[in-house]
Every structure is written in structure tokens, then in C-alpha cells.
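Chapter review: from sequence to fold.
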Amino acid sequence: MKKLILPLFLANSLFISVGAFSSSTVTLNFKGNIKAATCNISGGNNIDIDLKRMPVDLFNQPQSGSDWKMFNIDMNNCSSYVNQIVLTFSGTADTNNINDLYKNTGTAKNIAVQLESGDGTTPLGNQKVLRVPLGGKNSLSIPLRTRAFSALGNASAGSVSANITATITYL
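The C-alpha cell string follows.
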């Protein structure tokens, strides 16, 4: 009898412990909204800058340029998540100065287009970056300046044209 009681006791313990450790399931449902952290560009995605008429004799000497033409990229309705705007400029670099000048695709010879930050401290040649803090504001005006420039001098009369793209990243 003693031999029978022990196996029955062990078997009964297993059934009790299995029943004592039952489980339930809980379903977790997550919801949210992912919103793009951006700004609107005032005036659209294309900005035309007219360098006006320039006398060819401005470009007789090497390293000569026209007067600077100031303009802005105006940003508004910026998301509160935007802390900094990063502009990366790209276009066809001029072979006379691939770091600071863009190739003229117009008809004037020995002429390039030069682009800088509005205060002139940051040259914005091909693949150059301009970082602008938003400072908690929801709008911002980014001042820039441009001009026609001759690295070699002896420019010829004709048109000046360049296409420069600013890729904007919001941080």
C-alpha cells in the first residue's frame, strides 16, 4: 500500500500544479501619428534671381565679379519639431574653381556663378552645406547672395545662367 500512495501523491501534485499556473492573454493596441517635420517654402520651390545687365568690362581682370545680388529663401509654418534647417547646394561646378563656383550654361565665356551666405562668410559651391538654427521660431528667412564671377578675366558678352538646387533637410 505504501508503494501505491507515493505515486498517487506525485501524480496528484502534478495535476494541482498545472491547474495553479493557468495563463491569460492581454492584447496591447498601439496607435499614433507620424507627422513630417518640415516647413513651407514661401513663393514655391523655384526662385528666379535676375542678375540684370552687366557691362563686359567688369570681367576684364581675373578674379573679378559683378555686384552681389541679395535674395532670401523664406520658410514658414515650420513644425515645432524642427530645430535646424540644413541646405545642401548642388549644381555643375565650374572647372576654374570647383569648390566655390557654378558653371555658366549661358553664352558668356569665362563667366561663372558664385553663391554665398548672405553675410559672405560661407561660400556655397557644389555640395557645400549651410546650417541654419530655427531658434524656436516657426518661420525663417535665409539670406543668400549671388553674382557673376570671372576666375580668368577676359570674359565675352553673352547670357549668364546656372541651375543650383538646394536640398533641404529638417533636423
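Two observations follow directly from the output. The chain has a mean pLDDT of 89. The longest helix spans residues 2-20.
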